[in-house]
Specification:
heterodimer; A: mainly alpha; 5 helices; B: Four Helix Bundle (Hemerythrin (Met), subunit A)
Amino acid sequence: MSKYDWLLFLHMSGAFLLLGGGAVAGTLNIAALRRDRPSEIVVLFGLIRIAVAMILAGGILAFVFGLWLVADSPWNYSYGDGWVIAAIVLLLVANALGALGGRRDDRTAQLAKELAASGDAPSPELNALVRDPVSLALSYGSGLVLVALLAIMIWKPGA
Amino acid sequence: MLAAIRPDSWNLPLFLHVLGAILLFGTTATIAIVGFAGRSQPTYAPMLSRIAFRTFLFGIVPAFVLMRVGAGWIVDKEFSNNEPGWVGVGFVVSEPGAILLLVMGILAWVASRRQGVGKAALTVPILAGLYLIALVVAWWAMTTKPG
């Protein structure tokens, strides 16, 4: 196997961790939407941290080895190609949306922890935060941007 | 970059195949995560076992179909007569892997019926972990194309 093959494998591993981690986070988030007890929401939001670690590791792998692949490509790709620039912009946008959504979710998790420690009774305030449309739009928007990024990687418009 | 330059007509099946494989990886990882969490936090095992079974039903099954249909479509276009060995690695993971997934789904159902306790609940995340390893082998073969 050539160096290029290994770079592609590591880049793809990053893509799997990045988008797969997004799928884990989305699945656990949907599960949290169906729960009312603060302690259960604490458990699910705690597990989402594993997904966040996957997303961060995957993002770094995909980015670093993606740039390396462009440099080592036998097809004369360049950092100035439109699809390469679009991919980098989409990765940054997805990160920004995910980070904003994650920050709001941290506040929700904190409230859930406090409520769990003081009787664990369902709370309308917590329910509203878990189902906050802005947080959901940011998190799921980030996932959709990543799917668009995958499409750009496959089609490579302009290459 | 996911592949070298290829005819445009290959892009949609490749996109569906890769998206399906990634979703399959993510949903299988979810089952492994909630399954092992259920073992370490028995209070929440009933909830986590239900999540595992629902993830199988509404996540793994459609993701597997998307991955497998995309795979068949792209193989038809790219190698209509003569499949190279690395394509076979993918089919080895997808076909016998489907049986493993089916067993995992049945056990996830049993575990959810038993409130997340018992041998079924222990076996589900282990099978999910094994399938994750098989998926890594498959994407290694698909990207490096050995031979």
